[in-house]
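Entry for 4-fluoro-L-phenylalanine complex. Fields follow.
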Amino acid sequence: MKVLARETWGSRVGFVAAAIGSAVGLGNIWMFPMRAGLYGGAAFLIPYLVLLFAVGVVALTVEWTLGRATKGGPIEAFEKTLPGGKYLGILVNVTILMIFAFYSLVLGWVIRYFIASLSGELTRIEPDKFFNALAFSREALLWLFVVIALTIAIVAMGVQRGIERANKIMMPLLFVLLIVLAVRSVTLPNAYEGLKFYLLPDLSKIASGKTWMIALSQMFFSLSVLGNTMVVYGSYLREEDDIPLSAIATAFGDTAVAVTAGFIVFPAVFSFGLEPTAGPGLVFVTLPMVFQKMPGGMIFSALFFLLLIFAGLSSTVSMLEVYVDSAITKLKISRKNASVLLGLLTFLVGAPSALYPAYFDWLINISTVYVGPLGALIAALALIKLGVDRAYEELQKGALIKVPELWKPWVKFLYPIVIVVIYISQFLLG
Ligand code: PFF
Ligand code: NA
């Protein structure tokens, strides 16, 4: 029987654009400033950067190498390496479906805010009331559907024509918008108050274990290394494609966006005398208050939410792709049918989250806190079972830089231990 050849990336640049596209998302622009705001600004930024160098880059090499070596998504990769691997693969597929479901709700709010900025409506409303009326409502359900439909459209077109091309267009635009907004924010009156908060660490807070734990799970989520998306993206790599330098580029790009988002949010928030600790409402309530007071605010508001739409869609595409690929390879369904059917399934799973906040919280906690880090751990174990020597060889194929041999013991011992430690201490630290 002739099996259809697996799709691949068209170019190295296309792959890096898609990888950065997956990584950069609401995690960077909505969650990162929110957490940095809650955990002491620079006191959060510093642990985050330390962990990124220690764990983040390695995590990307682990998942891509595993994907390329096994030529499959998580089900394939774990089946080939671990006992009960098939079920572990199904588990991470379900996890990413749950992530896609709640993530789409938030991205739906973003689309609504973008429209309200364009129409000027956002100048007239009271942001907290607007947000509270929108967040969990029938209307939110509609926007959730729109997000899923857009994602289906891109995924249905395939790896090169859909995902790669969409990212090659969206990513450069995203960077331009980001710079424009950061320049606007840091040149506001009293912006330096925000810069101080963001750049001068309160040393007593850096010592807090909780801060490190939050920084770690934030980093895994932000880099999309939960044993699913990056394994699939790695499986589309060709032998001649580079892994290590791409990992550095992706980690750098993702972090640059998160850090820059902080430069957009904090100077603006402090300049208008607002609080950086608003949590989830920072982007949906506090920032709109800033835009209302700023000259030309609606233009910047529209740009900001457009930026979030690009960032978010390039991430949702990488989520849906995981189980669409599983359905194509395991159930032999066509890409179009798989995209539509699984997209609709996600809508059904996500719909209650648009109406019931408790369900929304449950989805987030299960998928990102309880199961997400396990996905990263399973991927690490799968690679170890494959053999770190063989994995190291795979990693070096097409590599544009030489990876130190230290990579092997790091992946075999330190990396999984770090994951287990974070995982356990999440619960101990509450
Ligand atoms: N990394 C994305 C973000 O920061 O918004 C979210 C994400 C995408 C998480 C894909 C996990 C994933 F598999
Ligand atoms: Na991210």
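NOTE: The pocket of sodium ion (ligand 2) is lined by residues 23-25, 27-28, 222, 254 (CB under 6 Å).
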